[in-house]
Write a structure and sequence with these properties.
disordered C terminus, mainly alpha
């Protein structure tokens, strides 16, 4: 089943043909059926039925039916119907989103970038930035963020080393003075 037709009529016709072949094989009184052959045929029928169902759902959505209606018909929630058949739309482009993960090394790359930034090796970190990040992540922005992070210079360091009781006292004083 490598070349499958994409129209509902063609898929339905092929499904009917394969279901008929399966029915004849199961009901043959001449000999016991070859059970593995039946499993293969049933798998093929199931695959075609799934394609027909997906196409019918797509056409129902195109006709204006809601995920709630489809979920009710299929006996699942609207969310489950969407997860199985839906195509999330990218809000930036309006195009269906691709579920393929293209960055299998994202965690390692992010760790390397953050490590470079925190170590002050901005030229190294900037090599991984796209144009939007390069534009937005200026030295000024980086400096503001580093002043806010625990363990950096300034008042943050003092509050990071303060005892919990003094932090509670400071919080209580500031909230009662309002």
């Amino acid at each position: 089943m490598t070349d499958t037709p994409e129209t509902l009529a063609a898929l339905s016709g092929l499904l009917a043909e394969q279901a008929a072949v399966l029915t004849r094989a199961v009901g043959s009184p001449v000999a016991a059926p070859a059970y593995l052959d039946l499993v293969r045929r049933a798998r093929d029928v199931d695959g075609l039925a799934e394609q027909v169902l997906k196409l019918c759902v797509q056409q129902s959505r195109d006709a204006g039916h809601t995920w709630q209606e489809l979920g009710d018909l299929l006996g699942v929630t609207r969310q489950a119907a969407f997860q199985r058949f839906g195509k999330p739309i990218d809000p930036r482009t309006g195009e269906p989103m691709d579920k393929t993960v293209r960055m299998t090394d994202a965690a390692e790359r992010a760790t390397a970038i953050v490590t470079a930034v925190l170590a002050g090796r901005m030229d190294e970190a900037r090599q991984s930035f796209n144009s939007q990040v390069l534009e937005a992540f200026t030295d000024e922005v980086r400096g503001t963020a580093s002043r806010r992070s625990p363990g950096s210079s300034g008042s943050s360091r003092a509050s990071a080393t303060a005892s919990p009781s003094s932090a509670v006292s400071a919080t209580t004083r500031s909230s009662t003075s309002r």
